[in-house]
Amino acid sequence: MSNTLLISLAVLGILGGVLAVILYFVAQKFKVEENPMIDEVEACLPGANCGGCGFAGCRALAEACVKQAAEKGHLDGLACPGSDMSKVGKILGLVTAAAEPKIAVVRCNGSCQNSPSKVHYEGADICAFANTLYAGEGGCSKGCLGLGDCVKACKFDAIHIDETTGLPVVDPDKCTSCGICAKTCPRGIIEIRPRGKKDRRVYVCCSNTDKGALVIKNCSVGCIGCQKCLKECPFEAIEMRGNLAYIDPAKCKACGKCVKVCPRGAIHAINFPAPKPEGPINDPKPLQGAEPVKPQAQPVEAKIEVKPENTVTA
């Protein structure tokens, strides 16, 4: 019995060795030589494999860059949002134009204060799931659900949910404009827009295309489609998409006129200096011999706390 076992082990060992040698020679015969530049290009990429470039990962983008550079002599159409493509071009001996820097913009301002809760949601903390069940705690069917699908999807830790407002906030220092958060949002409220000169940008912070009366009912700062900004813009950079105003970043000159005329405060101007006062502000001095004016009591507005009446349970 022991001899049979030893013979079996010897035969299997010899057979395994012979097959290993055959596989080695076959691998050497049919192996594909990779361009060493692929490793160099991949080293310049962030390595997050976020898919913002349109490829499965950074390795696939590096292979596409090397292949296109060899066949066509340029890198047009290939770009990684999280890295400087000029470094890739330098490795491949090409001159690449610097891409316009972009950033993710959350086009919703329906915070807990601006859009008070009307219902209470109890269910899975997944925006894509909650979007199929109800409009949202504030009642806006186009507003942010605040459950953080974009936060979970971001590979660069560049977006977080503000505990006070309940809305996602983008960190401009970490955002690479890969666009994964925009693709993940089930309501499409996140947009990749140019950062703008001096990191200044103007955009409509609303994505609701409903009629004005319904917007006013659910949100105190939503766009109502009054078209005042459209008439005020001297560069024809604003267009109406249904009942929603949209600012074209390619045409916008960041003059800020639309911001001033918006009655709802739905248009946001980011990183602009604070407006200067129109006239000199002087402290009024009381006239000699005149009695000081006593301040009149101002009426106190009663604040009514709106509590959720209904509960949505998944």
What does this structure look like?
- This protein is α+β, with helices and mostly antiparallel strands.
- The protein folds into two domains: 37-91, Orthogonal Bundle (3-methyladenine DNA Glycosylase II, Chain A, domain 3); 102-270, Alpha-Beta Plaits (2-Layer Sandwich), CATH 3.30.70.
- It has ten helices and ten strands.
- The chain has a two-stranded antiparallel sheet with strand order 1-5. A two-stranded parallel sheet has the order 2-10. Strands 3-4 form a two-stranded antiparallel ribbon.
- The longest helix is centred in the first third of the chain and has 29 residues, at 2-30.
- The radius of gyration is 30 Å and the shape is flat.
- The model is unreliable at 282-295 and 297-306 (pLDDT under 50).
Topology (SSEs and partners):
Elements: H1 2-30, H2 37-44, H3 58-71, H4 85-91, E1 102-106, E2 119-122, H5 127-130, H6 149-153, E3 159-161, E4 168-170, H7 180-184, E5 190-194, E6 201-204, H8 212-218, H9 228-232, E7 238-241, E8 244-247, H10 257-261, E9 267-270, E10 310-313
Parallel strand pairs: 2-10
Antiparallel strand pairs: 1-5, 3-4, 6-9, 7-8
